[in-house]
Amino acid sequence: MRIALTLYALATSIAIAAPAPRPKPIARPAAPTTWADWVGAYHGTVTWSRCSVAGANTAPVAFEIVDGVASIDLTLTRPGMPSLSLVSDDKGWSGRRGDVAVTLTRPKPDTLDLAVDLDSGCMVRGRMSRATTGVAACNSLVAWARIESRCTKLTTPPLEDLPKLAAVPWKPADAARCQARAATLERSLIDTGCAPHPDPQIGVRARACLALGEIAAKLSRCPNALPQIKDAAVATANALVAASQSAETATLPYVEQQCRDTHAELVSIATQFRCPL
Are 112 and 106 in contact (CB under 8 A)? Predict the structure, then answer.
């Protein structure tokens, strides 16, 4: 018995003395991509499949943004290939012109995966790379300067000189300076309308009520919910959305709180009747 108690005491003392496990470091979320992460002249090898006339195996491809409109220039890949306007999506960019559709993704910094599909069945695939300064922050500065150089909405002289920037032998020690200059240039381009605000909801009135309108629209299409419950909840939500757009500044916070409360009620109804939202 005495031996057992001694062993128990020893085990207890070891457990108490043992250091607590170190908490795992919290990974920082990846910084959102900006237009500067995409813009530039890309080079790489492309493959042509099921094409009656193949194009160049290596060709430059330019990703440009002019006055807020993104485009990809494929004209040097093969005669007759167009330059296409692009729209952004969750994965990257896509566009279509005539019988040519293009999809662009960014597998890693300064790299572009190009996919071109023609209605004829011809397919073009390639991984392209853009020239870099070797310093990520300075890459961003050069890219924003490229956007600025093509902006026709400027009312003052450009802040940066693209040819000079491209010729500078940037060093890691320049990163902070490049970052500050890039941020200043980005803000200037946002103000002139040549770059998007990083918050797409900026200037939107009553965001909580707009979110309520979206969930109300989804609930209205749910066949599982009882009509009388669903219709009443959707009607209330739509009334609040309408009220939020005309509410005076002093009363808007109260309307938004009602929108948040009603949003929670709609989520509860959707959960009860197994409605997808």
Answer: yes
Q: For residue 25, what are its two tokens? A: 């470091």
CA separation for the pair 111, 97 (Å, rounded): 24
CB 269 within 8 A of CB 275: yes
pLDDT digits (tens, 9 = 90+) for 212-231: 988 898 898 898 899 999 99
The token duo for 115 is 């996919």
Strand ranges, E, within the chain = 40-49, 61-66, 69-73, 83-88, 92-97, 100-105, 111-118, 123-130
Q: Which residues contact 99 (CB under 8 A, 6 or more apart)?
A: 118, 119, 120
Domain ranges in the chain are: 35-130, 136-192, 207-272
CATH 2.40.30 fits 35-130, yes or no: no
3-class secondary-structure state, position 95: strand
Contact between 88 and 99 under an 8 Å Cβ cutoff? The reply is no
Report the candidate in 100, 127, 107, 113 with the shortest Cα–Cα distance to residue 44.
127
Highest-pLDDT range among 20-29, 90-99, 153-162: 153-162
pTM: 0.63
Higher pLDDT, 214 or 205: 214
Residue 125, classified by CB atoms within 10 Å of its CB into exposed (0-12), middle (13-18) or buried (19+), is middle
Rounded average pLDDT over 15-35? 58
What the block records as the tokens of 109 is: 């910094």
Question: Cβ-count burial of 20 within 10 angstroms (0-12 exposed, 13-18 middle, 19+ buried)?
Answer: exposed
